[in-house]
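cache lookup: miss for this entity combination. No prior model stored, computing from scratch. Input as submitted by user K.M.:
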Amino acid sequence: MLLALAVLSAAALSAAALAGRAEAQDVGGALAQLATNKYDDTEAALSVLALSGDPAAVGIVSALAEGRLVFGGTPPRVFIQGEGGALLDPLTRQPVADAPAVKPVRVNNRVRRAIEAASGALSLVSPDPAKRLEAAQAVGRSRDVAALPALDAVLAKETDPKVKSALALARASIVIGQAGVSEADRIAAIEVVGAQGNQDALALLRSVPADASPAVKDAAAAAIAGIERNLALWGAAQNVWYGLSLGSVLLLAAIGLAITFGVMGVINMAHGEMVMLGAYTTFVVQELIRTHNPGLFDWSLIIAIPLAFLFTGLIGVIIERTVIRFLYGRALETLLATWGISLILQQAIRTLFGPTNREVGAPSWMSGSFEIGQLSITYGRLWIIVFALLVFVALLAVLRLTRIGLEMRAVTQNRRMAASMGIRTNWVDAMTFGLGSGIAGMAGVALSQIDNVSPNLGQSYIIDSFLVVVFGGVGNLWGTLVGAMSLGVANKLLEPYAGAVLGKIALLVIVILFIQKRPRGLFALKGRSIEA
Amino acid sequence: MLNLFTQARRAAGRAAVGAATLALAAASVPAHAQETIKVGVLHSLSGTMAISETTLKDTVLFMVQEQNAKGGVLGKKLEAVVVDPASNWPLFAEKARELIEKEKVAVVFGCWTSVSRKSVLPVFKELNSILFYPVQYEGEESERNVFYTGAAPNQQAIPAVDYLMENEGVKRWVLAGTDYVYPRTTNKILEAYLKSKGVAAEDIMINYTPFGHSDWQTIVADIKKFGSAGKKTAVVSTINGDANVPFYKELGNQGIKATDIPVVAFSVGEEELAGIDTKPLVGHLAAWNYFQSVDTPENEEFIKKWRGYIKNDKRVTNDPMEATVIGFEMWVKAVEKAGTTEPDKVIPALIGVSVPNLSGGFSTMMPNHHITKPVLIGEIKDDGQFDIVEQTPGLIVAEEWSPYLEGSKDLIADWRSPLNCGNFNVKTGKCGGAGQ
């Protein structure tokens, strides 16, 4: 209660101070400038509004940000478009009688930055600490020298420690590059900024004017060196994280192939298309949810996972029964037939859904990011890693612990023996192929979050998938896991030095050399081989 | 093993494509043989480029229908012959030959990528036919048989960079592109241009990625790092096609907003944005010669008719479509002027032909076989459309040979007599001065 009172009185005080300063500034003039709909004028008007302290200014600036500030009539005037499209006077907020035809005041990046700065300056005195925090950050980003007096005024009265440090940082960001600041003041600012230790701080520290005193330059250089050392360490961690993230994508794409190619020995060129069908299943599920029950949108991916598994699994079973079962043991024919199937599936999707990309939205729990130290981790990538590992564990469990898994292993190890034991090998073949395809479909659900959902989706993964399975060791799921992760990490560690194109080439060469040395991959199956 | 894959893939691809083309060709032959003028359409309807090129095929068919409703050309109906080169560059040349030799088309509208255009060039030269090429490209070419209705670098890239310098105060540049000829040449031109404007070498970062690159984490982090040097930074993107969606998604994920580091793209239009949630992209830019949001009566009417033809009232329009429309109308006008579809008569007749474009002006075919265009800069809005923030006051004439490149700055193209040359070297006074 006391705190609230203190804040309120602080707000009132600084508002009064601001209003006093702004007497010469003319809100009416600013409105006239806004009505010209020119970027320069809009920017000028915003800086006037930011310092005006007029209670209506907040509403005007936020209306501009939301595209509700409109202009029209002769001579042009500005209005705020209220609920239901009614035009309101920007100062009094009363409906206007003779409403002319209007257009929104245009906004570009420059104006957007000015809006951010202005609304920051205006809400520095907001009673809500969260808003003040945001405002302090916005003012810091804008580095607007004109906001300095207001910043000093609120800084002296701020009581919330979080907001206070944000305000101090904002002040330091402005002071650090401003002309005519005392040496001590600037060094203090460098310390405040340097303590942040991140990229943004680095940018600020590098903007110390060239004509600053040697002491200031030394302080900045020391702070920069410290941050750079720190960032280099975090950078390495970041690369490993990116590698794991890429590895999880490779694992998802390859794990279904580890079944159809690795366990069954079918060179399945239509594998990528199974991934693509899974992604399109997600799209269809989301469309249905959007039209019938938008509230369920956050659950769309969870709903899509089993559906994608069943749908692509079914397609897989159909392909196995109608084509592949006639071609067992004939690698080249299987390759050609499955390649043909992949073309048919692609063109079918192109005919049904059109050649252009389809938009698959991200549920709220997959958007955004959080920071660990200087490492920024996006939720989407994190969930994909978790999902890839879950799929891997589930698949391992199916193969190890269930009857169908046992039968699959039996059939792939010795078909005739298994048949003699009364296992329906035909049925097991179909189920195994269906399982591999279904898993590819589930991968498609995850990949729809990071890649284009287009008929070509699968093609970009087929080569990588084969690479992972061959590298990891055909017929071994653990090999696929280790292969995917090591290829991912190696790729991401190479990329900063060699560039994306050369990095990929280098990786291919490494894998080829490795396969020369160990033709059966990382984890070769021991004992009498399944391929005889 | 890999070799085996590629060979088998190619063989299988050919067979499937052949079948598809046969079906298409058969479908377009009319029941009774009234005398018509045939118009060839050479755009990929399958494979990676189908995403962009299918729309252009529909655009040509739409224009043919419109023209026939007006009574055709020279009293004859037009008839479109559609083939599918399936995003396969050598197949483009085969299909072009088929269109000209077997189908006897009077003109061909087609190609998207530069490599497909380069692959059909010898065919058009040998068989002396006409190709209209509707896509923005890297320049450094002018051929007698080709008419370029897309933008040359000075009609797109350079004005975009100027805009960023003047309006955003950008001092530091990331040139990011897909690794092939268009981005490489454009970036070479841009690098030379930026340096001529006083940008230091350490303030330019150039980055290439493979086709269809989907893991942008490292590169976006690098861009973020490059942008934290205390100078305003922008990204000039020549990233092609499908790779754009994951790139923009990653920008959004890592929280790079247009107000911090704006991205200006030369290959992202309304069609590409249709597949993305554009809310995190608001404010990023694109430079084109046409946007769907152009506010003119011509454009409004075009969009209305197009949506009626395609029977989809949400279908978007884009720049290469406008370029196709302009090329089509220019060809019709030139044929009427020449009174024949004979290429040797139509090619000279095309120079100087002027037709209305959709942004309210006129585009003219210049002697270098490129057209004049306005340049528009648009910012992405949250509905996937562009807000036009800048338009050049006048029309810009294409510089097919860039004045910023060593090998090409002395070259000009003029296909009128007496010069009749696509690469005339003004220093040596000879035709055939080597380009780069």
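stored under new cache key. Chain A has two domains: 2-203, 251-451.
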